[in-house]
Amino acid sequence: MSTVSIALSNTEIDDLFQRYPMAEKRKTPAYAKWQIKLSDCVITAYESGKVVFQGDGAEFHSSSYQGAVKRMPVPSISITYPQCGSDEVGTGDYFGPVCVCAAYVSEKDAEWLKSLGVQDSKAIKDDTILTIGPKLMERLVHSLLILDNETYNRIHPDHNMVAIKCKLHNQAFVHLRHKLKALPKHIIIDQFVKKESYYRYLRQEAEVIEGIHFETKAENKYMAVAAASVIARYAFLMRFEAMCQAYDFPFLKGASAKVDQNIVDFVQRYGQASLTKVAKLHFANTKKAGL
Ligand code: MG
Fold it and tell me: Would you say the pTM of this structure is higher than 0.85?
């Protein structure tokens, strides 16, 4: 249990209150404006401008107010529910799988997600992802696809990373359509390729989901994309941790120069052939590690 205290302006305090419309309103303590209770945090705003966050989610819920107040980017289409969104994780990491998720979010789900703090998924720390990931998976209709490294390395010579991503996103939405019978009007992808190219890569696919809206930074703007992003990250973190356990090896995330040495260490212990089970071999890191 942690406590974070910060000073906010009156406007910021009002803004904070409005961010959690579903939160339980508590009896107001002395000298306070209000107190609300979230599943993982109690927030008390005092007349003085002091705001206290208490609980496991204290860091997380106060994070957007530490330093400059963060402004959320504005979505280009009006936000209506229900909506579906998709995002992927692991494409920038040398080690570990590629995880793609598509999720369905109703208006009620959106309120619930806001109360959990799922608004700016990129700002959510890994330990919070591990807590809220399972909750999202339990409540939201979603499709999660995990492409393991061995399969990735086998198909990569014929399909570049963009092609692989296009197919996984499409497949996730196809699964979602089967689960829901029909997809809602708003289907959003956190854009990684132009719309025309996306559909070009899908020409050979048996079933293609049409009418998708492509937008960059969509994980900050659309609750369905934010939720999909959290689930995909949760899946990636779980797989990554399982990999570290299975090999008793401290794999590094990302694809920095530090990863090059990490590769050398891994190959020394397990041999080059094992690398295909844990890494995306086409990354420049493989060559940089001298392999
Ligand atoms: Mg993305």
Answer: no
